[in-house]
Amino acid sequence: MPELPEAEYMVRRLVECATGVRIREATVLRASLIAPQSPDDLAETVRGRKVVGYARRAKNVLLHLDRGWTLRVQLGMTGHFYWVPDARVLPRFTRVWFGLSNRAALVFEDARTFGNVHLHRTEELAAVFADYGPEPLDEGFTWQQLKGSGARAKGPIKPFLLDQSKVVGLGNIWAAESLYAARIAPGRAIPEMDDAAWKALHRAIRKTLSAAIENTFRVTRSGEEFPEADLLACAVYGRLGEACRRCKGPIERFVQAGRSTFHCPACQR
User: Fold this and answer.
1) pLDDT tens digits, residue range 89-122?
2) Which one of the listed residues 24, 49, 59, 72 is annotated catalytic?
3) How far apart are CA 156 and CA 163, in angstroms?
4) Is 3 known to be catalytic?
5) Which of 9, 65, 137, 254 could form a disulfide with 49 if both were Cys (CB 3.0 to 4.6 A apart)?
6) Interval 209-225: pLDDT, tens
7) Assessment of whether the complete model's pTM goes beyond 0.70
8) Among this protein's residues, is 2 annotated catalytic?
9) Is 258 exposed, middle or buried (0-12, 13-18, 19+ CB in 10 A)?
10) CA 57/CA 136 separation, integer angstroms
11) Which domains are present in the chain?
């Protein structure tokens, strides 16, 4: 499942491969992924538009077009957005693609079709993302801001980190990894978090996500490869029964809010 590091990887690969390209045509192969917009309206609006920049907001890839339009690609569970050199050979699960010059294309591939592609006026994006929390890697993201997001929360810390209105982009894997790095138990109640814990968690989130982005580039050779987070060298995620790298005790797993949580009960308190 794409999380913040994978989305950031996709954006940086697009910058490398497809800066300044112009969209020649748009083809929608799964209309439900752009609803309620229509394939014809989408194609007509983007035809001839130049891509003036790429960006990321949470787990959304943004293509800023000239004349004030932005394509927003929400990756969902299996979405992957990337440049291919020849649109005559499209990936198996292509759902929407944008033809460029010289037969190249920008492709949205999504095996399970939980993602979507929508066209917005760029000026509308603030409203589109109004309910999103802060970006954890932004310069302005502070431990006080993270603590403030949990001011009225009562539940455990791990599900809190998955709430995109509190802080965006972590997802199940990197929430677990950040808590491990901060030595905080995933079941710790938020009211029990003191300033030292919030500071440690803030540092761990930023350090963990930055390392995950670097590792994604390390294990993924080209933009066409899907960067799978669970292939990275995680400290706890997916390591049930294996030895903790700090204390050598066994990694355990339990279910929180319907999601698997991996942790070290000895190290995380």
Assistant:
1) 999 999 999 999 889 999 999 999 999 999 999 9
2) 59
3) 12
4) yes
5) 65
6) 999 999 888 888 777 77
7) yes
8) yes
9) exposed
10) 11
11) 4-128 (3.20.190.10), 143-263 (1.10.8.50)
